[in-house]
Amino acid sequence: MASSMVRNPSLAPGGRLKIEWVSQHMPVLAEVRRQFERELPFSGLTVGVCLHLEAKTAYLAQVIRAGGARVAVAGSNPLSTQDDVAAALAESGVLVYSWHDATPEEYHGFLHRVLDSEPDLIIDDGADLVTLIHTERQELLGRVRGACEETTTGIHRLRAMEAQGVLGFPVVAVNDAYCKHLFDNRYGTGQATWDGIMRATNLVVAGKTAVVVGYGWCGKGVAMRARGLGARVIVCEVDPVYAIEAIMDGFQVMPLREAAPMGDFFVTVTGNRDVIRREHFQLMKDGAILANAGHFDVEISKPDLTDLAVSRRVVRPGVEEYRLADGRRLHLLAEGRLVNLAAADGHPAEIMDLSFGLQALALRYVCEHGRDLENRVIRVPREIDERVARLWLRGWGVSIDSLTVEQEEYLRSWRL
Ligand code: NAI
What we know:
45% helix; single chain; 15 strands; alpha/beta; 17 helices
């Protein structure tokens, strides 16, 4: 029988407390759990999960298990796994393959262990499991009913697969649901990114210049919270419409080459590669802090930084100093991996209640309709988005108005 691979099972008590804490702040998932326990929608099925393995994810895995599934989980980033949470989750009956600071080989091996469990359904973050099935584990293509994808970068990869006609099962774009990107990407990444930067550096943000590269859903949140902390904020974009939005939101907009000498903090959130590179490092001031909140650790060019540096050393946990030939020091946080997860606990529980409430209900949707859906990237049905929103408002004790019959008719008609 398969058994979990975690760093240290004796850490479970601490992990249990963390899961208990977040579960008290996730009323949507609690309600979904009660429903799953009654109806067992995943009975007899295996669900393979690849997500940042911290307490909120552990709670989601337990909720899916409560719905009758066997669940196998791997972390979606070597630095975001919390070993105590992994131990507690394994102890609760979920198969866990992950530990903090896994080598690339170990990380790859863990994804394979999840696929060894022969999943019928997948929850993915960044499309790592789905791409692995399509490359190294094609024997699973006939088995998997469908998947749910958590983040923007994963959706980009899946749409590329769809465009090439190679996507072998339907994938629900959970990221694109309103209750995901409007709150998780914006308010979750906004708050948690600065939480990670402040924990890692213990430096003040007020009065400094923060350069936010990318003004998509995440970038809007990172810039907004930087302003709230008292920073002067510069936004760098390549999209002219988002650039206007940043201007109208009251930020300075300029090319990164112009912003490079001015920034104290640089945060990348583009989903792109080599966004901050040699030409920018060469212009930065001594002591600049470099952080990434995009999915992969390719946004800040580590090869360029390594190449320019005459020495490197870790000066605080999660802070690496790169000393350049002229004596300037640039500080890279969390090895350029998502700073909110690698240097903090990720998004707040209340935010992940929305994202993971969607994940759980979207998974059920794929489970029940997967065989009838086309092998494409599909939207989360509007009813699921609305159900999650209503459950969340109820959890917060907020009620809202509803349309009268006459108003509904008015909105449906074209004659005034
Ligand atoms: P988005 O597509 O809404 O925004 C990305 C923005 O970056 C776009 O406006 C694009 O024009 C801009 N951009 C691309 N290349 C650029 C360049 N070279 N210079 C300047 N701007 C550039 O995407 P979203 O939702 O904001 O996600 C961004 C990244 O963050 C993705 O990798 C996503 O997976 C990740 N993400 C991270 C989270 C976290 O917990 N840290 C949470 C959610 C998403």
